[in-house]
Structures are given as structure tokens and as C-alpha cells.
TrEMBL record:
Catalytic activity annotation: dTDP-beta-L-rhamnose + NADP(+) = dTDP-4-dehydro-beta-L-rhamnose + NADPH + H(+)
Domain RmlD-like substrate binding: 2-286
Pathway entry: Carbohydrate biosynthesis; dTDP-L-rhamnose biosynthesis
Pfam families: RmlD_sub_bind
Enzyme nomenclature, EC number: 1.1.1.133
Similarity field: Belongs to the dTDP-4-dehydrorhamnose reductase family.
Species name: Candidatus Opimibacter skivensis
Protein name: dTDP-4-dehydrorhamnose reductase
The encoding gene: rfbD
GO molecular function, one term: dTDP-4-dehydrorhamnose reductase activity
Length: 289
């Protein structure tokens, strides 16, 4: 049995790990939502690891994810996205546990306008993005055995996400104004979990060094938010017109990258199957909701 801790289990990605791994043969999952384990509580982290000495992997899905609120709440964003991953890293390093952590496409925010590789420059512009990058650095510099997945536009069951918002609004509104000048790749939580499972198996198969470091992971393809909304309505048979607007017209508080498609070649070389296209992932999600 492989013992795995999941923190941030109340979030959409944490829920996906519970859905996909709890009933999976060979996995012994210990999941903690925020009320059960606050990742900023160093003592609790140490006590948890001491009480579960056979744990091999800590999958951290907890984070401060309110991108616009972070502009006014830098202190909280820093505590949860920078300091807390540092606490986890140090404790996992001491316990010999491999830490799997998630970061964001927003850390790049560069002007390349082509799929971005892990070695391309990071130029985070928002507080959220800056704290996510600093959180990565806390982990990297701690010396802990780690995997950091930078992902984008995440959605899945039970989450506060774009797909669920469109499904809700599309049923009551005839028209929605959606941003069309931001391009990215929507990513289904279940596909992130499947990729992580492959990485864990490599680690278990004495190929630990292959899964060390920073990896991009997103569903294949690219789309604007407006076209993503149109596809959601088409596939869910919802009659709602999408009117394209600019980011400026929308007026979000925190800046978003205009082109944020991730080059996932590095992780693809390690995975059993090709990373699914976002349209395929969306179809699989819509039959679940
Ligand atoms: N969502 C996206 O589009 C996206 C894109 C790129 C990367 N990511 C990254 O992917 C990871 C998972 O995000 P997600 O989409 O699953 O976000 P989410 O649904 O907002 O889940 C985050 C969870 O972390 C919890 N949390 C916050 N502070 C905590 C703390 N101190 N201790 C324990 N739990 C805490 C939150 O609880 P409360 O709700 O009670 O605060 C929430 O349940 C994050 O690292 C995020 O930065 C997400």
C-alpha cells in the first residue's frame, strides 16, 4: 500500500484526488481539508507526519486562490502561498517524504505568444502569481524531493470555476459578455490526478530523479475564455449567446496573461498516455454534472 497525504482536500483539485485515489487499489489516502489541517500550522504538519510515519507522498492542493482578492490581501496570500509551502517542504524533507505541489501558468506572464516551456522567463505580474512563484522557490531551495506542476484554468466537480459558473449563468441569462483576448488551456482536475498517478508510479519504480523539479501540465490545445464559454453552451445544450469583450472592458482587479498556453512536452515524455485535448476533457466533465 502506498500512503499519501492530500492537503487542501476541500478544494476542487483536492476533491479530485479523493475521487480518483480513495478507491484505487494500492493507495492509502489521508486527506485533510482546511479545518482538519491548516498548512500554515507548522506544528500540525510535523505532528501529522509523525503520526503517519509510513507516508511517502504529500500532495498539497491547498493555496490562496482568490486571484483578485490577493491584490488587497498580500499578507494572507504570502502566508498560504509562500510561507506554508516552505513549512511543508521543510517537514517533508526531514521526514523523507516526496512533496507534490501545484503552481500556476500566471507565473510566466511573458510576451512570447507561443506555448511556454518550463525554462522560459517568469514575469509574474499579480500578487497571486508572485506568491505562487515564491512558493515554488521555497520548495526548490529547501532541498526536499519534490514535483511542482504549473497548471492553468482548472475546473472539476465541486469547484468554484469557470465551467460551473457558465453552466449556472447560462441557464438564466440569454447573453453573457466574456473576455476574448486571453488565450489559455482549460484543465480538468481528473486529468491532473491521472498525470500525478503516473509520476508516483515512476517514483515507485526507482525512477525518482525523473519526477524532480518543475513541470507544466495543462490539457492539450488552446482557446479564449469566450470560445470556451461557447463550447460549454454548445456541448451542454444551453441557449446563451456569448458576446466577446476585452480584458479592459471586463476590468478584473489583477492582471491576467493574454497568452498563457503551456508547452507540456517535458511531462508528456513521462506519461503513459497522451495528454487529452481540452475539448475531450470538457465532454467527459459535462457527462458528470
Ligand atoms: N483554479 C485554477 O484555475 C488554478 C490554475 C492554476 C493553478 N492552480 C493551483 O492549483 C492548486 C489547487 O487549486 P484549486 O483550483 O483546487 O483551488 P480551490 O478550489 O480554491 O482549493 C484550494 C483549497 O485550499 C484551501 N486552503 C486555503 N488555505 C489553506 C490553508 N492554510 N490550509 C489548508 N487549506 C487551505 C481552501 O480552503 P478555503 O476555501 O476554506 O479557503 C480550498 O479548499 C492551487 O495550488 C492553485 O494555485 C489553480
Amino acid at each position: 500500500m502506498m500512503s499519501v497525504i492530500v492537503s487542501g482536500a476541500g478544494g476542487q483539485l483536492g476533491k479530485a484526488f479523493i475521487d480518483r485515489l480513495s478507491f484505487q487499489e494500492g493507495y492509502n489516502l489521508y486527506s485533510f481539508d482546511r479545518g482538519q489541517l491548516d498548512i500554515a500550522d507548522q506544528d500540525k504538519i510535523y505532528r501529522t507526519l509523525a503520526s503517519l510515519p509510513q507516508v511517502k507522498f504529500w500532495i498539497n492542493c491547498a493555496a490562496y486562490t482568490k486571484v483578485d482578492d490577493a491584490e488587497k490581501n498580500e499578507k494572507d496570500a504570502t502566508l498560504y502561498n509562500v510561507l506554508a509551502p516552505g513549512y511543508l517542504a521543510r517537514a517533508c524533507w526531514e521526514a523523507g517524504v516526496h512533496l507534490i505541489h501545484f503552481s500556476s501558468d500566471y507565473v510566466y506572464h511573458n510576451d512570447l505568444r507561443r506555448p511556454i516551456s518550463e525554462n522560459d522567463p517568469t514575469e509574474p505580474k499579480s500578487i497571486y502569481a508572485k506568491t505562487k512563484l515564491e512558493g515554488e522557490q521555497q520548495i526548490i531551495y529547501s532541498g526536499v524531493s519534490h514535483t511542482i506542476l504549473r497548471t492553468s484554468w482548472v475546473y472539476g466537480p465541486g469547484g468554484h470555476n469557470f465551467v460551473n459558473t457558465m453552466l449556472r449563468l447560462g441557464k438564466t441569462k440569454d447573453e453573457l459578455r466574456i473576455v476574448s483576448d486571453q488565450i489559455g488551456a482549460p484543465t480538468f482536475t481528473y486529468d491532473i490526478v491521472d498525470a500525478v498517478k503516473d509520476l508516483i508510479h515512476l517514483y515507485e519504480d526507482e525512477q525518482k530523479e525523473k519526477i524532480q523539479g518543475v513541470f507544466n501540465f495543462a490539457n492539450n490545445g488552446e482557446v479564449s475564455w469566450a470560445d470556451f464559454a461557447r463550447t460549454i453552451f454548445r456541448d451542454a445544450n444551453i441557449q446563451c449567446n456569448v458576446h466577446s469583450i476585452t480584458s479592459e472592458e471586463y476590468g478584473a482587479i489583477a492582471p491576467r496573461p493574454p497568452y498563457s498556453v503551456l508547452n507540456c512536452d517535458k511531462i508528456s515524455a513521462l506519461l503513459t498516455d497522451a495528454i487529452p485535448h481540452w475539448e475531450d476533457a470538457l465532454k467527459r466533465y459535462l457527462v458528470m454534472v
